[in-house]
Amino acid sequence: MTRGIFIVGNDCALSRAIETEASNRVEQFASAIIPNRLSGAPAANTQRNSPESTKRLPLSWNPSSPISARTLVIAAENRLDQINEAILICSPPTVRGSASDLSLSDIDILINDHIKGWLFLVRELALLFSSRKHGNANEPANLKFDGTKFQGTLALVYPDIINSGRDDTADVLGPSALASFRTLTNGLLAAAQSEPYLTMGFTTTDAGSEAAFAAFIFKSLDEINKRSNGKLHKFGKFHFFK
Question: Would the pTM count as exceeding 0.85?
Answer without folding.
Answer: yes
